[in-house]
Amino acid sequence: MSNYHIKSLEEYFQVYRKSVNDPELFWSEIAEEHFTWRKHWNNVFSWDFSIPEVKWFEGAELNITENCLDRHLHIRGEKTAIIFEPNDPEEETEYITYNQLHKRVCTFANVLKDEGVKKGDRVCIYLPMIPELAIAVLACARIGAIHSVVFAGFSSTALSTRINDCDAKMVITSDGSFRGKKITNLKGIVDDALKESPGVKTVLVAKRTNNKIKMKKKRDKWLQPLLDSAYTDCSSEVMDAEDPLFILYTSGSTGKPKGMMHTTAGYMVYAGYTFKNVFNYTENDVYWCTADIGWITGHTYIVYGPLLNGATTVMFEGVPSYPDYGRFWQIIEEHKVNQFYTAPTAIRALAKEDLEYTAKYDLSSLKVLGSVGEPINEEAWHWYNENIGKKKSPIVDTWWQTETGGILISPIPYVTPTTPTFATLPLPGIQPALMDSEGKELKGNQVEGNLCVKFPWPAIARTIWGNHDRYRDTYFSAYPGMYFTGDGAMRDEVGYYRITGRVDDVIIVSGHNLGTAPIEDAINEHMEVAESAIVGATHEIKGNSLYGFITLKPSANGKDRDELRLEINRMISERIGPIAKLDKIQFTEGLPKTRSGKIMRRILRKVANKDTNDLGDTSTLLNPEVVKNIINEAL
Ligand code: PRX
Questions:
Q1: Could you give the count of Cα atoms lying within 13 Å of 436 in the half-sphere of its Cβ?
Q2: pLDDT tens profile 85-131
Q3: Class of residue 591 by CB neighbours under 10 A (exposed 0-12, middle 13-18, buried 19+)
Q4: Among residues 537, 521, 533, 508, which one has the least CA distance to residue 635?
Q5: H/E element holding 303?
Q6: Superfamily for 506-634?
Q7: C-beta 536 within 6 A of ligand 1
Q8: How would you classify the pairing of strands 543-552 and 529-539?
Q9: Protein residue whose Cα sits closest to atom 8 of ligand 1
């Protein structure tokens, strides 16, 4: 039996049982046999979900970049680590070997040190999908600085909120980004953000688009000259197992974004282990995940997971529609991609296009297809299976979260029989539980409830940066003794899990988590807005779109409604980013409220989804006449 690479269903069940019956032995064998340590741990793990506190491999010392880079050099030094595929197919692809990546990471790490970055400092990375992004992440890890990557589609306000929350002293950015035909001046966005973030002392700027930007004396520095004059050797900082590795922000249903903090050893072991199994990665495969490194998927399954396994990982700068809708399939043919990991929203968008785009390319290299970020609907699953996988590549529908650090529920390809829309079985070490509304665990099969996890796994986030109380309240208070995911799920007659979606006020739009409260806050800042409520409406491609119900102040009388809609969306773009713009805005005279003053979102959800025949229990509704009007005026 191999703990590390599961090859049959029987083996999966054996390994799973072992992981539950003897988690110490299970995880310590994996950690020992497949990773490099400077010092062995004293204790495999300890936990108490009531504090909550979780520790893995306590007492161990290591550096994750030694595991991602150094240890591969004597066997895979000349192997390609990263294939960088630029936005424009006419621009040359860059192949970075493990030797080259090691050198570039070390050089970058020296630049960070030269600029005064020390172990434990936070460094904010706001870069497009260019090699410097992966290199900057690894350079931080090399010297023990905590990276906080912010997706380069976020606005200056969103960026500044994140910089201030973690008190970053440096920002690494570029002059601009290429995405399809669009060039975005990223440095300009950083300049705006820094007006509100005085704690940032240094901005390193990578050159990518050559658009004109402003450089502030002393604060802003071009990266390349610094790299040119830096040493290329850099020994790695020795980190404790529980030293923070990174902070990554995710939306909450209320309040400001949550800086999920992940630590070093547990995250490393889990990222490496799950990558190997879920993608069935074998030496010389070419693996491609289309996510952005600004999200957890990119952290764990573009950078860390693949590199920990000495894999070749593709980084794509562009978008699926440029120069045409065949771009993904062309890249798969060109690089003979074996594992392809993307989001249902991309699959749905591409499935709408002519089949010519897929038929034109040779996709026979594919062995595994992955899906992540939201439930994959049956139609998209079949399209993916038939047209991309040609019914011979298993689809791994991987369920996980920023908070979980790695995949928790997923088929293992060529091992777990797949069923459309089911994430199937928990990976070894993961003990899911479904809870009913009274807080009791639903045992047995054919049940549906709120999805929790009742036992720690190595990559669980350890806290919300600077707010441990919020961490406890959000994840560990609904069901004492359990981690609550915020998702609903059902378990079918064979024990397969199907994720049914969020049960809180987080809406997933095109695979991006959006909390309703921050968007409502942005809207309510508009002078003419009295009150607002956002709900998700089912959308053919995006999964959900945002539908806003907005009550205006009397002062808005006579103002052009379409103009107001534009202004409101502009405000959302500025405060959060274009991904949070509303698809539909319905102005209403009031919002449906309970007698205690809570907005009845359930009713608004029904209106947005044109499903108002049965409104359910409305006995606590304070203002039924408002609801009638809202239904009549629905968009
Ligand atoms: O609702 C679940 C959904 O995405 C949420 C986590 O979002 P985020 O932290 O941004 O991480 C996304 C990438 C890991 C989950 O709570 N989700 C993620 N994967 C799936 C999913 N819903 C259904 N099926 C999935 N495979």
A1: 7
A2: 999 999 999 999 999 999 999 999 999 999 999 999 999 999 999 99
A3: buried
A4: 537
A5: none
A6: ANL, C-terminal domain (3.30.300.30)
A7: no
A8: antiparallel
A9: 401
